[in-house]
Amino acid sequence: MLHVDPISAATSAAAPTVTAATPPPFTVTSVFTETRLDSWLAVGLVLAAGIYLYGVHRLRIRGDRWPVARTVFFIGPGLGGIAAVTVSGLHAYDTALLSVHMVQHMVLSMISPIFLALGAPMTLALRTLPQRPRRRLLAVVHSRIVRVYTFPLVAFTIFVVNPFALYFTDLYRYTLEHAWAHELVHAHFILTGCVFFWPLLGLDPLPGRWPYPGRALLMLLSVPFHTVLGLTIMQSSTLFGGDWYPSLGLTWADPWADQVVAGGILWAGGEVVSVTMLAVLVVQWMRQAEREARRIDRDLDRQEARQRAAEAAS
User: Fold this and answer.
1) Quick one: pLDDT at residue 37?
2) CB of 167 within 8 A of CB of 10?
3) Coiled-coil segments, which residues (predicted)?
4) Are 87 and 45 in contact (CB under 8 A)?
């Protein structure tokens, strides 16, 4: 088997400066028993869900319709997906098992952002906010910095480069040793995923959105990068994070075997999610084409009606 080593800086042999709390053996039960509800992220998720549902409630009070699917997407796999990997018992293992960290990576950067985008929270805000806050929100959306970061090529570059910058430098080891940095990486995963997927699949009005063929091309181009990263992790002859995982002394886990599993999760999961989202993009493309065809038909019908009326009048 071909072995590809990460940059040596990422696998320093120095002993960990911080000792992680040793979690119990990983089981389905521990995912529930190790759940924490007192984190800042849990509070933020509850607050985001409450604000979204309040906006939907305001629309219903005034008689406006809001698609149920959008609410389900945003609250369920969107916010719920984030909670499943950060608030549940999985959080107790994210610095003990690389495979658990990769599950978090996949959900936070590729799965939850997609469903957050499909929930169209910006559109909901624009329909419920008073005039002045709505103008401010539109000003932010159309600001220069948002235009730059949501430009598809910029967002694609950030999305692709970030994992390599994290795992092939000292940064990953640093996040293992410092809890605040590890939490910041979680937030960064969510942000980069939103920046990439929102312009591609989102329903909100964003500036500089590419036509569907360009979006599909970017989605396809993102697949090989996760494959390369996953295979590199699986075939590496050195441990990511250096001696961090062996130093934990987990008798119920083998760091080498777990690293292979982690690479497989990133490889297979990345391809499955990318192909699935490409299918979603194609469906959106077809629906947009159908709407455009209906619009053209209506315009032609009106033109024919005016022509017949003119002929009858003459």
Assistant:
1) 75
2) yes
3) 286-313
4) yes
Distance (Å) of CA 227 to CA 97, 141, 199, 224, 268: 20, 33, 23, 5, 8
Q: Return left, alpha or beta for 241; rule: phi > 0 is left, psi -120 to 50 is alpha, else beta.
A: left
Exposure string over 85-96, b if 16+ CB within 10 A, otherwise e:
bbbbbbbbbbbb
Q: Which residues lie closer than 8 Å to 82 by C-beta, 6 or more apart?
A: 41, 45, 107, 108, 112, 190
Distance CA 184, CA 61 (A): 38
Q: Where are the alpha helices (DSSP H) in the chain?
A: 28-33, 40-61, 68-73, 81-86, 98-106, 112-118, 121-128, 131-141, 144-149, 152-167, 171-177, 179-201, 212-235, 244-247, 255-313
**pLDDT tens-place string over residues 261-313:** 999 999 988 888 888 888 888 888 888 777 877 888 787 778 878 887 777 77
DSSP state, residue 209: P
Token digits of residue 303: 């033109």
- What is the C-alpha separation between 183 and 60, in angstroms, rounded? 36
What's the pLDDT tens digit per position in 37-71?
777 788 889 999 999 999 999 999 998 999 999 99
Distance CA 82, CA 222 (A): 22
Does residue 75 or residue 169 have the better pLDDT? 75
pTM of the model: 0.83
Place of tokens 């390599």: 164
Q: Whole-angstrom distance between the N-terminal and C-terminal Cα of the chain?
A: 84
Question: What 8-state DSSP symbol labels residue 151?
Answer: S
pLDDT of residue 8: 40
